[in-house]
């Protein structure tokens, strides 16, 4: 018995060492649950990783009908569920077409859990006008600097 317990402890320690390696594996896909109750999404914002799926469960006696960018449910009666997989990072706003004030959001991170650029704060500022001027390039014909004639022109005759 004691020996068996010790073996378990060793196995647990080994697991603790292995877990960080497993955590970084991109193929990991989680399933998340979002509960619909009181005519609201709980939570109304859910964060997942690309490849994860979200299952909505209707706990209301009312029917709900979800619609978002790229997906739409049927009418969901009480206890009905609706699952969507989110393969790519981004932010998806969805709502109930029956109770249009019911809104929710799914934030899909990169598969490694990092935040995709499109969801970080303000949109990127437009690129600044180029400060590169002609003074930084080597002089050429446009600057009035004579350029050697092409070397392919034949030499003048009788040059002895
Ligand atoms: Cu609804």
Main attributes?
five-stranded mixed β-sheet, alpha+beta, elongated, binds copper (II) ion, 160 residues, single chain, 9 strands, Immunoglobulin-like
User: Which small-molecule ligands are present, each listed once?
Assistant: copper (II) ion
- Side-by-side strand order of the widest sheet: 3-9-8-5-6
- Kindly report the average pLDDT value: 78
The backbone outline, from C-alpha atoms, is elongated
Q: Which CATH C-level class of the domain at 31-109 is it?
A: Mainly Beta
Q: Helix share of residues?
A: 10-25%
Write the CATH architecture name of the domain at 31-109.
Sandwich
Main β-sheet description: 5 strands, mixed
Number of helices: 1
| Number of E strands | 9
Q: In the CATH hierarchy, what is the superfamily of the domain at 31-109?
A: Cupredoxins -  blue copper proteins
CATH topology of the domain at 31-109: Immunoglobulin-like
